[in-house]
Write a structure and sequence with these properties.
The complex is a heterodimer of chains A (about 350) and B (about 325). Chain A contains eleven helices and twelve strands. By secondary structure, chain A is an alpha+beta fold. With about 325 residues, chain B is an alpha/beta fold. Chain B has two domains: about 1-105 and about 160-170, no CATH class; about 185-315, no CATH class. Helix content of chain B is about 30%, strand content about 15%. In chain B, strands 1, 2, 3, 4, 5 and 9 form a six-stranded mixed beta sheet that branches. Classes of the chains: A alpha+beta (about 350), B alpha/beta (about 325).
Chain lengths: ~350, ~325
Amino acid sequence: MYKIAKENLSALFRLIAETRELYLPVKTAGQTNYAAWSEDAEVDLDTLKTVKSAKDAFFPQSEGLYTVKKEGKKMSVEPEGLKEQDFVVFGMKACDVKGLEVLDNVFLSDPVDTFYAARREHGTVVAMACHEPEETCFCKVFGVDAAEPKSDVAVWTAGEDLYWKALSEKGEALTEAVKELFTDADEAAVEAEKEAIHKILEKLPYMNLSLEGWNGDALSEKFDSPIWEELYKPCLACGTCTFVCPTCQCYDIKDYSAGDTVSRYRCWDSCMYSDFTMMAHGNNRTSQMQRFRQRFMHKLVYYPANNDGMYSCVGCGRCVEKCPQALNIVKVIKAFQNQGGEQ
Amino acid sequence: MQELINRAKELLADGTVARVLGWKGGDLPYNPEPAYFETAEELADFVYNSFCGANLSKYMIEASKLEGKTMVCLKPCDTYSFNQLIKEHRVDREKAYIVGVGCKGKLDIEKIKKKGVKGIESIEGAEITDEADTLKIQTIYGEKSCAYADAMLERCHVCKGKEHMVYDELIGDSKETKDADRFDEVARIEAMSPEEKFAFFQKELSKCIRCNACRNACPACSCRKCVFDSTKFDSSQKANVDSFEEKMFHIIRAFHVAGRCTDCGECSRVCPQGIPLHLFNRKFIKDIDGLYGEYQAGADTTSKAPLTNYTFEDAEPSIVGKRG
């Protein structure tokens, strides 16, 4: 294990950026989101939750697939290149790292999504333990340990220092590249920090949320429940929950036409939107209740059914913080619990 | 709050209304949600406190299509939106039993959290009956406090007043919370050079994630199908493909609600990225006031709106053009 004084972090970022692209939480106009590092960037490692997750680094909200160009009578198709440059995502929390696992199951299983696979191959994740977890967090419910991020490199902040531990080959390689800035450290401070985090986690209101009854076999029981008719009503049908979510992975493929050039791109879609999965025959979800239900059924029933029981919620709590009308997955789970989940 | 619940029970019992539209208690000290109540038992979950910021007027578009009347709780500023929706024939006045609820300024949990308050366990001072001007916040990391006014939504600092513009009855007292002029921020931006203005909006709008929360919460955005949801419209709709598009969406929206926006502030309240979207609308309101005389959308249901009316006193287009 190594350590570096927090005040020297900009030197660390500069050094990483010499050989790799570096993405980390940056504050812009009052909000913290993952962005490329630059000398002028206001790096913000104190904000626990970036508004959007770090998902963009591997699965951007919008990315080009290919461009069709017409010149006279000739047409050419230029595919978008795959990611070739190594990059580092610094500061991801344990929940967001678990979110990548959810995305991996989708994009790296056959047929492999080459755009995503290239980013995963070239990306190194430096994950950070959650110094002060918040009341909206419920990662423990999904088997995530906020004090023990499992990634290429794990880092902890304690006192004036940042502690660094490589956990994979990629992590070792990155460590080699920046080791000159580090000094050796023992684990005592990190152990104390972990214990402090665990103590706080125990106190958080959502940490003991029960997922009883939510599994891949609960399909008809949950799908047919009358509770959805009540739950969806305040939903504005905006896409905030889906766009801040580290695991929502649905996308749409669209064309952007500029006369002689047509760009085909994909962008995140939201099951809350009226044209979600719309096909030539129409739409298979015609009401907002159905669209609302889809999101939670996907996270807690369909995904587990297809992925050995793994849920596709990681308990980051962004939807809890950001839903304009204060709806969220926790309230949905609780509503079913209160009704016995049998209806 | 109890008075509201009692009245709601009476109105349900005597058949005046078929349902009540208000707020239901959340599972954190600050997250009540809009909710319908159809029985006296359900009203056990009813709450009305300083975190009930949501403007329920827009829900009345759908509620107007339901059987029977809906008792809806509207704060003074919400009633402007309701009036405007009446004017636009988007809600049915006869389907609403409007209870004008008192308001002493609504709180913005984001503002509280931005002060470094985290791990919130309880918040004292957010009840509608509380007179305290300081919030006492119990957190896992110790007790914190925050001045009530510092935690208020932006819109409450430029409050339009204690009066409800439309109602069937009033329950609870309101407090004037205005401590700033709503055009101050607009004037500050007007004073910038074009380059500074561009940089300001570029920085703010580059945060936009195109979640459409602003549009979907906006009572003036009541089109049955938004042009940005059309599959035939050649725009990216769900993502900002380039920096032009991230501006286009908001500018088109601002133009579309110009003259109809009551400045209810929902767009800025719901934006997950904290973009001050109300500034666009206020610029239009300021210009309309200057060019056509003062006008407040939603103050009534019958007057002709300046942008959809013509008078000989109207500003000449050339004069508008010269303003730059």
